Amino acid sequence: MIMNGTVQFGDEGFMGTQRFQEIKAAAYEHLLSRIEELGAEFGRWTRAAIEEFVGIEVASFARLNRMAINEAEMQQIASALTKELAGLGPLEDLLEDPAVEDVLINGYDNVFVSRRGVLARESLRFSDNQHVLRIVRRILAPLGRRLDESTPMVDARLPDGGRLNVVIEPLAVDGPMVSIRKFRQDPLKPSDLLALGTFNEEISRLLQAAVECRCNILISGGTSSGKTSLLNALAFFIPEAERVVTIEDTAELSLNHPHVVRLESRQGGYDGAGHVSIRELIRNSLRMRPDRVVVGEVRGAEVMDMLQAMNTGHEGSMATIHANSPRECLYRIEMLAGFAGYQGSEDSLRRQIASALDFVVQIGRLSNGSRRVLSITEVTGVGDGVISTQELYRHESWVDPDGNDGDRWVGLGVHPHTPKLARSKAQLRPNAPSEAEQGGGFWGRRRQ
């Protein structure tokens, strides 16, 4: 059945069978021979023309070979082959699905997809590993990236802002390993995160005040915990009159701000020539008159340049880092500074970290796939050779009498120590929750 130009099927079981793959492969070879006859003319066809051509040729191929397939199955094969010739094959529907966050291919017959934070195996599959490589190389071709035995590992940014990572033989033992991270075209706003239960109203007010008052913020969390989404949301609070420079390994940020300068590192060529690191970009960004510097992810020697930027007049800067807790986050910064060749004493480094950072926002992904701000910790200084912190809010899970899971954020009832938020003291005054309030309102909410 065809509705509005799109083929609709009630039963997609045929597409998951070996018979479908065999018929599709044979029809694909037939199409390639017909395309060779057409020559350069085929390259000028529109997608609609290719779709019509494939439909006619598949019907003719099935009739000549007396294949026992019905009209719906023939349409499924034609649709899949159109995607092969004019699109991205089996990946096309997944990349167009707004609910899909990650596509993970572990060899041609082992595909996993993450939707709303939950990873599950997908029924689609490729015909073989060469089929996977053909689609991946089609993605990489417009990007000018090379994937072969001499460069078996590629990290690239897709035209829609997503990220592609591919590892092939001899590094990948069981076939091509492809990881595609998708990003929303419309970044989540703070109100969206509030509605999703990522944080409550009181935390939202604190984060807004921290950004507007130019506090330096580090967002810490694990893989796929929502760090980039939270960083994008915080950018909504940056005053429009300020100039923001973003620096990333692979450009993922999409800040909703009128004055953003986006910089992206560059991998070196086959001989390593032309490599431009995050560290070099941060150094150069300080010559570009930024009001704030936003680093997509701190993972190496650039940590020292980020701290220098935060300590030299670029207040209100932000970054993300991989760590499991605020304390682990501070330890990781010290470790990265050591790898960067920091020559000073440990006490001097800790004082520099404490003077640079105002808040560490820890975010995580729960077992049901939902993302939550797990804690907000303020860096208050250095005492007895240790970086001093105070936790302002902590996330807790709870279960109501009906057995429903819920969330709440427990506050210590203290105002942030930093003088940057002195003017916001009345706005941010915490209200300790009563026992009745802990199951509802903005302190507690049921988890959907």
From TrEMBL:
<comment type="similarity">
    <text>Belongs to the GSP E family.</text>
</comment>
<dbReference type="InterPro" id="IPR050921">
    <property type="entry name" value="T4SS_GSP_E_ATPase"/>
</dbReference>
<dbReference type="InterPro" id="IPR001482">
    <property type="entry name" value="T2SS/T4SS_dom"/>
</dbReference>
<feature type="compositionally biased region" description="Gly residues">
    <location>
        <begin position="438"/>
        <end position="448"/>
    </location>
</feature>
<dbReference type="GO" id="GO:0016887">
    <property type="term" value="F:ATP hydrolysis activity"/>
</dbReference>
<dbReference type="InterPro" id="IPR027417">
    <property type="entry name" value="P-loop_NTPase"/>
</dbReference>
<dbReference type="Pfam" id="PF00437">
    <property type="entry name" value="T2SSE"/>
</dbReference>
<feature type="region of interest" description="Disordered">
    <location>
        <begin position="422"/>
        <end position="448"/>
    </location>
</feature>
<protein>
    <submittedName>
        <fullName>Pilus assembly protein CpaF</fullName>
    </submittedName>
</protein>
<feature type="domain" description="Bacterial type II secretion system protein E">
    <location>
        <begin position="85"/>
        <end position="363"/>
    </location>
</feature>
